[in-house]
DNA sequence: TTTCACCGCGCAACCAGTAAA
DNA sequence: ATTTACTGGTTGCGCGGTGAA
């Protein structure tokens, strides 16, 4: 009774139950073709022997894998949230997920390569960074869904949030509160950074405030937000929109250390509605991406591509929504 | 040239190169038994056909899987760090990792079940929460390594940090700075919480300070730390040790909102040296777990068990180290 | 009684590779 | 270098037996 004495196979169960291998297979798959009595008996034996099907062999023969590969990055809270949603969505339609992580020392190509060997039926990539051409090549092999990043290529499906609209919501909210001098801390070279930056600029222009809309170079993490805070403290605006929540928390802290009160002196809006942004002590006003909808659509999109003949390229753009919490308020009265 | 027209197999390559299937297999595995010229030609054809080996079929036949299953939890920054280390360690000895996540809606049993189907050769569990008896049962199936959680069972290997010692380091550091009234915010029912709490109590006793060592119920996240802060603010000690960095950041924020200066009025020590704890604006003094060593040992332990006959149970306990940053200082002078 | 569809089941081919002869 | 025998399953087909028409 230890690892090493070989796991039981269909053959073992068949021998013990005195039936053919194929019949055991039928019972295990709950497929038609076995009497209730036999079914009962085989299941009993299988349980006694602690039989567990070998998915490798199963998939090898049946061709279909019902397995989706997901590439995500460690230390991205938003990716964790999306994984949660993807598991739910896949479960619901009887698909399995197999995960491959991008880490500081393991790049995206490696992560994808690992999944390709596993013969997943399709790939779901969270915020892929590799060139669009490479994604397109990949998509000739198997269905590829890119999340959070737009890819202009007919073979690659896209599920993303309307990021420009997200910034519109943020700016509209701030303008409604009375702000005019609003800055944006962008995401540097991150995926979606350009869309959000442009969304900010468009919204400011729409309000006739383009002269007051400063864009500060930021990045993905808290340190980027903190750095932006130091820059903004020189001549602080009354409100700031950010690339993501992580950056926003760094910004928050930096601004407060610089002596400003949030939201009394300055308002801050995050992006992602990460799980920590709703914590009481952070309580960040933020733009929420609809994770469950995105996850469901990404999965069903992938499955469609697996099942069907080549379908038309689709870019699904989900509207974001603004979650107003405690880091935004009307601007301070002029002295 | 689209997904669906079946990926090339060994047979396709063999036909195209006009050799036997087995020979192609030999070439692809870089095994002896093929001439340099043929090798060259076969590789050329394989590349042209865009051939990729089917790892499932390969593993099925060869029996060996060189595949380690890892169960981790989303939204645990420390797990992300450990994943990074595990990938490195596995890479180094030619093993693959397959990941299965625990999410708010996907429990540990489900996560483990998914991996079992994949026929991994061994399982590495990050801070498993399921009962020890269940782990023991699991270990009769395949090698199991529990990380960050001690399991008293001969079949389950353990790689963990000496958590009691971690708290000793923290308390010693604070006492050396002159603190006497020190509180500990524990991890509630989290794995390792009891060890850290006990380590705190022992250290305080060793310094003759047991009368000054208050333990506050905490938990895993920032909100738990924030809640503890509210409790501590009633009659603040001059220093606090915590269950982890996440809780410590919540605590930090709560204390500062309560009007205390850190580290002027009160010192705070975290646990884990999570990637965010070293950010300039957090700059948390913390107890670091030796991630790379732990990851390397966990992987090699698992591999040993796979290869060898049942070996003796081993619990590997790694010493932590204190990382002194900006949240600890001597206590304020008495008024 | 014959005819026949149907049912539970076993046989053997097959999936994509590997290993020994 | 090829041949042959596997790995652990899945699947199409056909077999004998049964009950109804």
TrEMBL record, chains A, B:
It comes from the Bacteria. Gene3D superfamilies: 3.40.50.2300, lambda repressor-like DNA-binding domains (1.10.260.40). GO terms for molecular function: DNA binding. Keywords: DNA-binding, Transcription, Transcription regulation. Residues 8-62 form the HTH lacI-type domain. SMART domains: HTH_LACI (SM00354). This is LacI family DNA-binding transcriptional regulator.
């Amino acid at each position: 009774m230890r690892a090493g004495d070989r796991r039981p196979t269909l053959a073992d169960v068949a021998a013990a139950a005195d039936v053919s291998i194929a019949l055991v297979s039928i019972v295990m798959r709950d497929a038609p073709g076995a009497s209730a009595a036999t079914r009962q008996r085989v299941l009993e034996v299988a349980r006694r022997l602690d039989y567990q099907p070998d998915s490798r062999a199963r998939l090898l023969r049946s061709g279909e894998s019902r397995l989706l590969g997901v590439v995500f990055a460690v230390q991205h809270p938003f990716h964790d949230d999306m994984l949660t949603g993807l598991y739910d969505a896949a479960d619901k339609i009887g698909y399995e997920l197999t995960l491959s992580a991008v880490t500081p020392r393991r790049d995206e190509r490696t992560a994808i390569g690992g999944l390709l060997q596993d013969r997943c039926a399709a790939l779901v990539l969270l915020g892929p960074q590799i060139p669009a051409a490479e994604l397109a090549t990949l998509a000739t092999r198997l269905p590829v869904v890119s999340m959070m990043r737009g890819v202009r290529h007919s073979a690659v499906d896209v599920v993303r949030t309307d990021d420009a609209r997200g910034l519109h919501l943020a700016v509209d909210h701030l303008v409604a509160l009375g702000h005019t001098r609003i800055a944006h801390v962008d995401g540097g070279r991150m995926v979606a950074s350009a869309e959000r930056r442009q969304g900010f600029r468009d919204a400011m222009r729409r309000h006739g405030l383009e002269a007051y809309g400063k864009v500060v170079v930021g990045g993905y993490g808290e340190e980027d937000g903190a750095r932006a805070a130091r820059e903004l403290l020189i001549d602080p605006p009354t409100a700031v929109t950010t690339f993501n929540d992580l950056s926003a928390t760094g910004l928050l802290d930096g601004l407060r250390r610089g002596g400003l009160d949030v939201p009394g002196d300055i308002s801050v809006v995050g992006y992602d509605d990460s799980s920590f942004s709703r914590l009481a002590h952070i309580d960040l006003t933020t733009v929420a991406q609809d994770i469950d909808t995105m996850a469901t659509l990404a999965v069903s999109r992938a499955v469609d591509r697996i099942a069907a003949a080549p379908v038309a390229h689709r870019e699904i753009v989900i509207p974001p929504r603004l979650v107003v919490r405690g880091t935004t308020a009307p601007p301070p009265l002029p002295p």
